[in-house]
Write a structure and sequence with these properties.
mainly alpha, 285 residues, 3 domains, 80% helix, Serine Threonine Protein Phosphatase 5, Tetratricopeptide repeat
């Protein structure tokens, strides 16, 4: 380990987490001791939690945030508390505890009602809840929250937000087997993405359009649309979208009985993942 004086505060927090994995309460107390004297301890814990979350150290992040939330509540800092719960929701879900994530985001939604209107916060909470409800298969609540997020993004003229939410609504409809409304939402997202200059949103919208064709049994049409999505993705590269398109094509080829093409597409999914891992390692160097 490097000299303690040469470490940043964030690095010291990571070191404390590693040293106190079996005693997270001791970890929180140790991080509190790092806060500047006479400073904002709750804000410091909030900031350090965000730093850990950015490195996917979700357990430590949630421990710090839980303590920060208690302090914000005691201090009557409603806006800080609301945003904190809004951030805790998706992080808890990402850590594998979706019900806990839902509880955090629902708390943020409840507290947000006591604040003046904040479109960013409202969109953030509703879209996160929509995704989490979809993950647990609660399609009615997912539809409700996604619809709220769409209303907020339309009022704010947030076009990327509208595209994301339309695609989320399309996927909920698709999961429910409602293919006609799913296509309406997906085509709306595709049209809006094109009017905004394309980018990765257009490729992602084309993927969802292909998914709808695939669900309807038109595997060849789905493949054509996935190929269009890959052409669009090349203009605005996005590894996650590319991997999703290749995987979707492998499923469609499997359905057609073209096992060779399906295997080729799965290999391309793996290649995208390996390339992304290599980029991450080089950026950490």
């Amino acid at each position: 380990m490097g000299d303690r004086k040469s470490q940043t505060v964030e690095e010291r927090v990571v070191a404390l987490l590693k040293a106190n994995r079996r005693d997270l309460r001791a970890f929180v107390h140790a991080v509190e001791a790092l806060a500047p004297q006479d400073g904002d301890v709750a804000g410091f814990l909030d900031q350090m939690g965000a730093s850990l979350a950015s490195e996917n150290r979700t357990i430590g992040a949630l421990e710090l945030w839980t303590k920060a939330a208690k302090m914000y509540e005691e201090q009557g800092r409603l806006e800080d508390l609301t945003w904190l719960y809004a951030n805790m929701g998706p992080i808890a879900a990402m850590a594998g505890d979706v019900p806990r994530g839902i509880r955090f985001s629902e708390k943020a939604e409840e507290l947000a009602g006591q604040l003046d209107s904040d479109s960013d916060l409202a969109y953030h909470v509703s879209s996160d809840l929509g995704a989490m409800y979809a993950e647990v298969g609660d399609w009615e609540r997912a539809m409700y929250e996604d619809s709220r997020a769409l209303e907020v993004s339309c009022r704010a003229e947030d076009f990327p937000g509208q595209i994301k939410t339309l695609l989320a609504l399309a996927q909920v409809c698709l999961a429910r087997g409602d293919l006609a409304p799913a296509r309406v939402e997906a085509m709306g997202a595709l049209s809006l993405a094109r009017s905004c200059g394309g980018g990765p949103f257009e490729a992602d919208a084309m993927r969802v359009v292909g998914d709808i064709a695939e669900a309807s049994g038109d595997h060849e049409q789905a493949i054509r649309q996935y190929m269009q999505g890959l052409e669009l993705e090349m203009v605005s590269p996005d590894p996650e979208t590319r991997a999703q398109l290749h995987f979707a094509m492998s499923v469609a080829y499997d359905a057609l009985g073209d096992l060779e093409s399906a295997a080729r597409e799965r290999n391309l999914v793996e290649a995208v993942g390996l390339a992304r891992d290599g980029e991450d390692e080089s950026s950490d160097a």
